[in-house]
Amino acid sequence: MAVVTISSAYGALGSEVGRAVASELDVPFLDRAIPAAVAEKLAVPLEEAETRDEALAGFLDRLLGAFVVMGSVYGSASPPLDIPDEAAFRAATEQIIREHAKSGSAVIVGRAGMIVLADQPHVLRVRLSGPLEARIEQAVKRYGLSIEEARRQERENDGARAAWVRRLYGRDVTDPSLYDLVINATRFGVEECVALIIAAAASV
After folding, report:
1. Which of 42-56, 110-124, 151-165 is least confident?
2. Looking at residue 74, what is its pLDDT?
3. Domain interval for residue 48
4. What is the CATH number of the domain that holds 162?
5. Greater confidence, 5 or 87?
6. Distances (CA, A) of 35 to 16, 51, 156
7. 111 phi-psi bin (left φ>0, alpha ψ -120 to 50, beta other)
8. Within 10 A of 56 (CB to CB), how many other CB atoms are there?
9. In the prediction, which pLDDT does 65 show?
């Protein structure tokens, strides 16, 4: 049984496809469970782990900036010393991904799983994407958003994910060399994407 990592652009329905693949293969689905495990491992509130998880590349800078502003008001610019640093969150996330990969069967969405497990055999690395306008249109129809809201979410979500991978690993999340299978998820529906992924997973 292969481990499947899924990297998804906004509007490419990564979580929905990943959950369906996991259900079809009857294996664990790891998406929101990852920051929860990180929070437990580092003994921090889940909200903080989720914030680091979703926009890690910019979170620390914003956090330190906030303390500088507070320091100008209260006479000190030093942040609290008990906040786990960026390296600690990265290490905890990678450890959790590797631990689940050892089981030989899991679907892992995001968190640069394709890079973390690049040296592991029997891992299928998938990228779900598609033309920008088609992804925005798909998000509008799928989630009942306005065009403006979908565009805003795309900028924020794709920007944060790209920055996260670039800052922590020095790689471009859209680089096709990181993946074994790249699917236009605006051309193919969820069921078709699932079928393509399962067929590819059977060969790794």
Report:
1. 42-56
2. 43
3. 3-59+86-199
4. 3.40.50.300
5. 5
6. 18, 9, 19
7. left
8. 21
9. 40
Q: How many domains does the chain have?
A: 1
- The rounded distance, in Å, linking the Cα atoms of 202 and 25 is 10
Predicted TM-score of the model (pTM):
0.80
Q: What is the 3-state secondary structure (H, E, C) of the chain?
A: CCEEEEEECCCCCHHHHHHHHHHHHCCCEECCHHHHHHHHHHCCCHHHHHHHHHHHHHHHHHHHHHHHHHHHHHCCCCCCCCCCCHHHHHHHHHHHHHHHHCCCCEEEECCCHHHHCCCCCCEEEEEEECCHHHHHHHHHHHHCCCHHHHHHHHHHHHHHHHHHHHHHHCCCCCCHHHCCEEEECCCCCHHHHHHHHHHHHCCC
Q: Is residue 42 part of a domain?
A: yes
The pLDDT tens digits for 26-60 are 998 987 666 666 666 667 666 666 666 654 444 44
Token representation of residue 144: 């009942």
Domain-located, residue 75: no
| Cα gap 103→21, rounded to integer Å | 17
Inside any domain, residue 65: no
Closest residue by Cα to residue 137 from 64, 67, 69, 187: 187
Give residue 13's pLDDT: 93
Query: Is 34 a member of any domain?
Result: yes
Q: What is the pLDDT of residue 31?
A: 76
d(CA 175, CA 189): 23
